[in-house]
Each structure stands twice: as C-alpha cells, then as structure tokens.
Amino acid sequence: MAHRRLAVSPLLTQVAPGPDDRASWRRVWLTSSATPDESGGWTDTLGAREDWWNVAAYLDPGERFPRGVEVTPAMETIPWTPLTKPLSECRVALVTTGGVHLKQQKPFDIDNDGYDWSYREVPSDASAADLMVTHNHYDHAHVDGDFNFMLPTDRFRELAQAGVIGELGPRCYSFYGYIKDLEALAETSAKDVARHLKEDRVDAVFMTPA
To answer: How far apart are CA 190 and CA 32, in angstroms?
Structure first.
C-alpha cells in the first residue's frame, strides 16, 4: 500500500531550516511549485496543501505539526456500493469507533496506545447495564450516561418501528478509534467485520465516530 505525507502546519514556517534539515524542504513546500520527489523523496504533491489547511484549522496548535507529517495510507480508490432498495426495506448495522463493548469482553488495549485494531461484537439487543467504554481519547461521560450517544440501538429500533429503516441487524461492531496502524486494521479487523456484515445480510452500515 502506498503512503503519503500531508502538507504542513503554520508552526513549520517559524522553523529556521538548515541546508540538510527536512524542515527546509517542508518550508519550501509552502511556497514552491516543486514536487516532493525532487527534494527529499516526499510522496505527495502540493495539491494536498489546501486540503491540509482545512484539516489543521480544527486542530489545537500543538497537534498541527505531528498530524501534518505523520504517514497515512494513500488509498487509490474508495469502494462504494449504491443501495439497491429503499432504506425502508434495508437491514442496517451499527459500527462505532467509540470503544463500546460488553463488560464481560476483554477491554481495548489503551496501554498499547494506537495499536489495538481489534473489534468487539455487541449484540444489538444488549442492555445498557451490560455495556462499558474503554477509550482514553475522548470524553465519554455522556456515553457512560446513555450509550445511544455512541451505539444508538434504541433509536434505530424506533426508526424500524416508524418504517424509516427495515430492521436493525443482530450485531453491532465496535473499535477503539485511536488506531495508528491503518494497514493492519484494513487487512485484519476491517475484513472480518465486512465478512460478518455479509453473513448477517446487512444492506447498509451507519458509523458513529469518536
């Protein structure tokens, strides 16, 4: 899988670059029409710069530098399957990255921060008393009080009763959303969940990100 580095944050324009410093190239990237491969072997083009500014505007200043230079997988295409029936006839499933799981299940590994790409199957009819959250990268106080914030099974059952969706599938799937190794996620857990969704004859998936 190819990789790319996104363009950089305003912090880098304040760096006094040396002749052999990567910061020198990063600063050039902000002002030059040169392509990354001509200087330092970078694998993306200036076209990503505008996209990065849109992202950086939402980040705290201290996060803009590390987020700007981290390596992410470059996807050639985005697989897309159009619906072949009205939503009112679809069986849907819920997928969350909020770290929700059954209390009896093994918690997500927050000590190995960023490298737990496993998932948990959660029955769609699980009660709130059986659920908990293991996640240290968002404030889940509201979720602890009402799991429908992150795993809205009650709301989707209401949608089914109202005829908005056909029905809710038997299983939901939960991830610990702070995952750094996206290739491992794509090659293991994501494929497993996709297979289970097919087994459950799910037509559409709704994701709640954290």
So the answer is: 39
Distance separating alpha carbons of residues 37 and 39, to the nearest angstrom: 5
Distance CA 160, CA 89 (A): 9
Mind spelling out the 3-state secondary structure of 28-67? HHHHCCCCHHHCCCCCCCCHHHHHHHHHHCCCCHHHHHHH
Domain ranges of the chain: 3-73, 87-208
Helices vs. strands in the chain: H and E counts, helices first: 7, 9
Two tokens, residue 141: 């106080």
Each residue's pLDDT tens digit, 67-99 = 555 666 666 777 788 889 999 999 999 999 999
**Owner of token pair 């990255």:** 97
Residue 43 CB coordination number (10 Å): 13
* Buried residues in 129-150 as b, exposed as e (16+ CB within 10 A): eebbbbbeebebeebeeebebb
Cross-strand pairs, 72: 4
pTM, entire model: 0.67
Is the CB of residue 102 less than 8 Å from the CB of residue 130?
yes
* Cα atoms found within 13 Å of the Cα of residue 209, Cβ hemisphere only: 2
49 near 30, Cβ under 8 Å?
yes
Q: What stretches of the chain adopt beta strand conformation (E)? A: 3-5, 71-73, 91-96, 100-102, 119-123, 131-133, 167-168, 171-175, 204-208
